Amino acid sequence: MRTSRLRRLGPAAAASAMLAAAFAFAQGNVTPAALIGKPLPDFTLTDYEGKSHTLSQHRDAKGVVLIFVSTRCPVSNAYNQRMVKLAADYQPKGFRFLGVNANKAELPEELAQHARKNDWNFPVLKDTGNKVADQLGATVTPEVYLVDSAGVLRYHGRIDDSQDAPAARQHDLREALDALLAGQEVARKEAKAFGCTIKRG
Amino acid sequence: MKRALFRAILPAAAILSIAAAPAVPTIDRQGYAELIERLRGKAVVVNMWATWCEPCREEFPELVRFHEAVKGRGGTVVAVSLDPPSAADLDIKPFLASQSATFPAYVKRPGDDDAFINTIDPAWSGALPATFIYDREGRRIRSFFGPVTEARLRKEVEPLLPKGD
Predict the structure, then answer these.
(1) Which of A112, B46, B108, B128 would you call most buried, defined as having the most Cβ atoms within 10 angstroms of its Cβ?
(2) How does B101-125 read in b/e, with b if 16+ C-beta sit within 10 Å?
(3) Measured between CB atoms, does B145 come within 8 Å of chain A?
């Protein structure tokens, strides 16, 4: 619908809209909701061991779960075991999990220590200068971006609906993963939760 | 750990003031809408915070100072904690007492977080702290995502206050 409206307005308006979108990316004014259903911009980051990871290198996977995390945020830490369980359940089914840490003060050594302490079974990438957080409009930890095998954002937001694991009733990320596995549309494409602000540099 | 330390060093006078401090009632989406309606006629600054949120704790003295500056002039602060209600007596009330906060304080009822966040401001991600300014008609006119200062709040709210004689 948006595309057809742009067509009616002509190439100048379309170019203007694309420029505005590029400007929004550059300014970090992106809202994740606006990215749902669209390909996420590609990026390359290194993990705490110095290994490089590019989002598009995972196109052979069923999908990629990006989770903005923190070593110090109590909400993010409340989900440590649940993130490990989700990765253990869905990585064997063809999904890849990538943690992303964009907090300025949390350095790679701290990320490594935190990952070892919590037995994390997925890499954690350091988003120095929060460039990827800005591109994706990420503002909170934990915050999930689930992309499909074509790199299209299919779900954004919380892992589930309670910081207290036994109280969780809506398992939004798990349901989105199951939908992708079944080749179905993700029913709930975005769900928010309270968390810690990403401390930008 | 920090909370345990905070409680351990809490002076006796503060403990007495906690006991005397008003209750921290729970609030949900509907209750929030009713609260904003009840406060029509005042310029209202709502701060969303939690005791587990370090930037929120650091920001709090700014809110207290701001409230002291506007409370007799048609302005108020309301604090809504996103801690679990079970934290009301153990964490929230002691913190409010330690800050000498005299404005109304609530704790959000668990559940329905997505709807609660979107009702207040669809642009809000749920990251804490967040502060929302309502004019005297109960309209949300400004949102701050991240810590605010007393000076910034005064700049935004002073024009909303009733003019003095």
Answers:
(1) B128
(2) bebbbbbbbbeebbebbbebeeebb
(3) yes
